[in-house]
Design a protein that fits this description.
This protein has three domains: about 160 residues, Substrate Binding Domain Of Dnak, Chain:A, Domain 2; about 150 residues, Rossmann fold; about 220 residues, Rossmann fold (3-Layer(aba) Sandwich). The termini are far apart. About 50% of the residues lie in helices and about 10% in strands. It is of the alpha/beta class. The longest helix is centred in the N-terminal third of the chain and has 35 residues. Bound molecules: iron/sulfur cluster and Broken Fe4S4 cluster (MSK). The site of Broken Fe4S4 cluster has 13 residues, from helix 15 and helix 22.
Length: about 675
Amino acid sequence: MSDVKKEKAVKLADPVAASIDPATQEMIARAHELGVETVFDRAVNMKPCVIGIQGTCCKNCSMGPCRLPLPKDGIKEDDIEVRKGLCGASANTIAARNFARMVAGGAAAHSDHGRCVAEVFLSVARKETDAYQIKDPVKLRAIAPDFDVATTVEVDGKQVDRKIDEIALEVAEKVINEWGKPEGELYSVKRAPKPLYEKWKKNGVLPRNIDREIVEIMHRTHMGVDQDYKNIVKQCTRSAIADGWGGSMLATDIQDVLFGTPTPIQSEANLGVMKEDHVNIIVHGHEPVLSEMIVAVSQKPEIIEYAKSKGAKGIQLGGICCTANEMLQRHGVPTVGTFLQQELAIITGACDAMVVDIQCIFQNVANVAKCFHTKLITTHPIAKMEQNNVIHIEFDEHYALQDAEKIIKIAIDNFQNRKTEVMIPKHKSLQVAGFGVESIEYHLGGTYRGSYYTLNDNIINGRIRGIAGVVGCNNARTRHNEAHITIVKELIKNDVIVLTTGCNGIACAMEGLLTPESAAVYCGPGLAEVCETVGIPPVLHLGSCVDNSRILLAATEVVKAGGLGNDISDLPAAGSAPEWMSEKAISIGHYFVVSGVYTVFGLHLPTSGAPVFHDYISKEIEKLYGGKWDVEADPIKHAQLMIAHIDKKRKDLGIDKARERVLMDMAARQALDA
Ligand code: SF4
Ligand code: MSK
């Protein structure tokens, strides 16, 4: 049936060693039974390149690849003179160039996603499409001032609200300009705490426009251009800020305006959400522009009737990766799985169509789909596949509903073509997702003060020890979900509240950590008390990869609420990507770091072959921005590093001993600030 049986001496993954998740283990075993190869098998058969892991292989010109492994006896004083590429590039230069190119790749992915959403918003504002509407005019009015767009106008000497259509058009034109405006700086960098903005200004890293910063990385890392690792890091800092505080933040804001700002919503997660007697449509990727339409069309009575006419009981939508997070946070569509479960969803035999847009899609899903009846549909002009079983239906926002209907009908028509016995694992968990800056304020803010004061008070009195942003992918080089779950459990056990996005959010959902009830089971007494009092989970799911911008803005709100210093770097907070794999993760990590966050990555960082460069981003950079990189593969040590950092910040703030709840008045807050 597949490649596995054809090839000789191919090792198969041990399901239990490959994942902590029982549904995943069952499906890996099922794949072996059916002879279908998955990423877990490929990971045991192909070893990664050691020099690539160290970050010191350069292929930026055809005199290379030049490979500079770390000498077994360590580096010497004259390292940059003796360990070098044909052009003389040192290990530091090569590792910094590779690192910067990863930031460029990640920033480009997030920001091009943002551009696509901004283009749809402009079409809506220009009334060129009626498939989308402005679902959250309140959010549009709230963000308009960030773009110097007035929300009121003077009439007869009085200020009255401007029409929402006028605001939309003006904001849309300003937003689309952020990718290529010829002068000035990005509007949204001013949303950062003032001291952070001043640090960026002083260090010359304020982004000018989004595209330019990415292009400049590609130029500066071309053969024979920038050869000073510190100067290269400066540019990747500017590009990372253009991602987190630019392209990603714009994507999040405009998606909220168009599709609605998420509010907490209940759903389920894991492969067990698929239903044997329903048409199962799985949407995978990142951009909600398509998935919003799929959700809308799948709920139409005539479409449900059509599904029934083909023998199905209904339509079951499900998501994988960040499209899952987008559909979950706004509509409660259940999550089928993380990045590493995409092939497994097809192997259930019940996936009638997998619809993909952009990012994190394995090319091998096409090979797996060939073994089943599954229709694999690509929808984005920049993301096609070479296999001949893939259908391409290019999604056009001007005909959004028609395109979505066409796709859903293909899935429905395919329901009767199932050929392999269906096996859907029973495992699924309840989850509450859909948190954001606004809903954290609602749940954890004082009702009469309407801000983050209650959260801050609970941090000051020690019930909440600190805040962790734990995000990012899965990686087949490590046991699926093990580091995600171990780290998050260790943090909440120690009263650290966790903000999550991306595949970490999905992993936590699968483990049942996104329910308020989990607080009593897994949290330390302080965090458990807060969660039980306000009815929130100890792990707050803030959405997709671009929604890491929500974490930046939530941290900014905590700073604004007072009592915890003047900048993000003063907060008892830390970041983590336990099982990272993508270039986007490196861009996110870097914008966390240069926003003042101590950020720990699991597995390894592609910097170990250049210890001087590694020291720069993991030590010296803290003096410039207040945050720094760290790397720790052991999940308990990883969490403990974060907790130690949080405790250090508590000590610096003078709140390390204040374990009893003290109601803070303004004078007390100011005294803490002083
Ligand atoms: Fe080698 Fe220099 Fe070319 Fe890189 S740019 S491949 S180090 S010669
Ligand atoms: S989907 S980038 S594997 S988090 Fe955003 Fe998951 Fe990482 Fe893709």
